[in-house]
Amino acid sequence: MKRREFFKTSALGTLAAGTAGCSSLMRRQVEIKPKVHDFSNEFLKVTKPKPKGTMEMREVGKTGIKVSYYTFGSHTPRKLHDFPDYRKKMLMEAYDLGVNIFDVYPPEYVTSGEYLGPLKHNVVISMYGGADKARNLTATQSHERILGLFKRDYIDMVRLHSHTHDAPNWPVWEELFKLREKGAIRAVGVPIHYPEEMDDILADELPIDYVILPYNFYHNILYTGKYPDDFNPLAATLRQRGIGVITMKPFASEWYVAHLMKVAKEIDPEGELSLGQAMLRYVINSGLEPDTVMGGMWCMNDVYDNISAFFSPKISADEEELLGKVRKYAKLIEDAALPRHYRFLNRWTSQVV
Within a domain: residue 89? Predict the structure, then answer.
């Protein structure tokens, strides 16, 4: 059976039509809970070929920091910590394929500092900043500790969640700005979890260098059957102020993707399409033109598969059709699939899918 015919006749194709009956049937038959990938030797087995191509380089805002179009994201599952050699090889393979920016979360500071240390003059390090309450360190003291772990004089990009001048944590911002003045940080940014946070940032004209916001085939503010046309003005406004635009969650979060991959496999049982590549190509072809796309990679197949999308960025009609089917399923499970601390993503979706 041809793939297009299967789209029309499969059970999940019917489910994805979004009728009330299908929705209730799905909820009765399938228990949806927050879920990430199950780690096993089979999951970690390398089955994808190493891609060939050239990674595009871009500048983050007006910082002068040149980064690969794709960022090795920071959300590393704890189970992957049990395979340190494997994870190191993932980082090195991504670097060999042209990825030069690596986002790092606190649990990986020590190991990432060790793995990326020999490349410190060739890679861009991105991370979250602020006080280390567990060690009773101020933001400045914490940053000095991190510099020691990475054996560097500066960290390229440091972010802090949105705050305004009247917020209790404003002094932490001031510490980061002072570290930037001293050259210990090259760029200070802010991740946005709720759309309205941008109002405060733009109104206050905070001296930030870049913004990170969720953007993918499902969480894209307004989806009306075409690529959204109301998102670009925000990006344009940021760029007019010299602020870089970085997107995160290209796979709709690690909590969604395990469910969505199973759905995609039923829609496309022969595996002719890659859901991950389709998701990334959606962002690449959206017209948003982010400075870099920040996405997590959990196994070597992810490294090869995801980077391939940037080597061959054109999205196909079949991939768009696949995303359309998966998008409708995502709508049905969004409340159940996401844990509470990730439900902010629902604010970036429309009521019309």
Answer: yes
Count of structural domains within the chain: 1
DSSP, collapsed to helix, strand or coil, labels residue 59 as: strand
**Is-contact 223 350, C-beta < 8 A?**
yes
Cβ neighbours for 348, distance < 8 A, ≥ 6 positions apart: 195, 214, 215, 219, 220, 221
- The residues, ordered by sequence, that sit 6+ positions from 137 with a Cβ below 8 Å of its Cβ are 131, 145
Distances (CA, A) of 64 to 85, 178, 179, 186, 210: 33, 19, 17, 9, 12
Q: What is the CATH number of the domain that holds 307?
A: 3.20.20.100
The pTM is what? 0.85
pLDDT tens figures, 24-53: 334 434 455 555 556 666 778 899 999 999
Domain span at residue 220 reads 55-128+209-322
Q: Which of 268, 220, 276 is nearest to 37 (CA)?
A: 276
- CA-CA distance, 242 to 227, in Å (whole number)? 25
The answer to whether residue 80 is domain-embedded is yes
